[in-house]
Amino acid sequence: MITAKRKPFEEIKETVKDYNKIMVLGCETCVAVCQAGGEKEVEILASELRLAFGSDGKKVDINEELVIRQCDDEFMADPAFLKKVKEADIILSMACGVGVQHSCNYFSRVITEKPVRVIPALNTTFMGANLGVGIWEERCLGCGDCVLEKTGGICPITRCAKSLLNGPCGGSSEGKCEINKDIDCAWHLIIERLEALGELDRIKPVEMYKDWRPSHSGGPRKIIREDLRI
Amino acid sequence: MKSGSNLEKLLKNGEFVVTGELGPPKGTDVEVVKKKAAMLKGNVDAVNITDNQTAIVRMSSIATSKILIDEGLEPTMQMVARDRNRLAMMSDLFGASAFGIKNMLCLSGDHQSFGNHPEAKNVFDIDSIQMIHMVKTMRDDNKIICGDEIEGDFKMFIGAACNPFADPFRYRPLRLAKKIEAGVDFIQTQCIYDIKRFKEFMKQVVDMGLHEKCKILAGITPLKSVGMARYMAANVSGIIIPEEMISRLRGAGKGNVASEGIKIACEQIQEMKEMEGIAGVHLMAIEWEHKVAEIAEQSGILPRPQV
Question: Looking at A33-79, which runs of residues are DSSP E strands?
Fold first, then answer.
């Protein structure tokens, strides 16, 4: 899933301080699962803002809203909801960066009376897995050309700090990465997994230059599925 | 000959080679380079010029290598995958060749988080093994990666690093084999202090016949002080310093630790001369270039052979 972390409160407060009608808009999908921007987090942030502005003596109207997905038009089309969006001076989106951009784009298309201002309350971080209560770890960079079949199901592009395809480098020590002893050396894990599978031969040949075009290096990406468009 | 460098010729003749190392200045001061070069001249066969080592910004490896050539020394230009994509690498290699640089070392590079710009974005478009393959293709096929012909000749003696002290230990000879498959001509190892582990590593290398497919130079770094030994063991990636070596340094007593460190380095050089599969030593006297003459003298490697 996409994981995110809330921005520091002071930074959020600073970005909304000049507005009177603020909508805190949560998203019930990825960011709700990683407990950064779901219903509970919307409530907490809205309460913190009310308290902070209250103690500053500033009167603000803070409205809490939630949609299933901010990255899809259909979940934001409810007229009653759009009316509230129109009334707000600013939308503080608690979605990932995709949701922030998409909701802004959608609102701008359907609300023609005035420009709609949408800003982020979260820092979108990575595509990762939940490893236990309160722990998420990066697993995929979306390079567009998966190599997991060769590497025992452990991604060297994402989990090696140098994205080495012929690792491990000389900095691997006792199973840990040279940059941080809290990070596993991906190549150490790959070698152990392939040994257990009896497939160490898979990484004996030199892995040649990666074609980065399917990744972000090839420019912003787009998928068009003609079979779904008919 | 692959490049016709002094280093290549000496290794071909079966001489026990000695390479040195020179860290460029953190700025434009050419005199620093000239001073260090003068200390190394005549004591080593070629000099590695580091490429923003430990991710600290320094005078470029290519420019410093050119200064060395002008000073009458032979450089081995280091190149890390951290700071350049394949376009920049190939273009710099053309330039290096045009300047008369004939040896290079292909490295991944320390992560930028160790350096003075930890907020920088890294590159790692290709890795060190792919870099070896790229340089070999340029030299042997006279083509760059995309297949375009190189205008003019491109000659380079291709080196790479090997760290027998990194983990997983059992995989290290296999990684060396991959570098050989990619086309490496010579290898310089990480600084050796744990001789027991190094011997185990070399036994596997010799059993696999890897020493016959590339020349292996053993990395030697004299320890200046007990503090330096402790610092390196704790902070430098992939370095193991056994406790008995630290005890020996400490046992030398106040004022004698540095000379004991040099004595240990000289003994190591002697030991490497005897070891099967070792073709020379890579002497990295970090910010201690003025001691290289003394080490060379004491370890009996002078005069350096001429070709």
Answer: 61-67
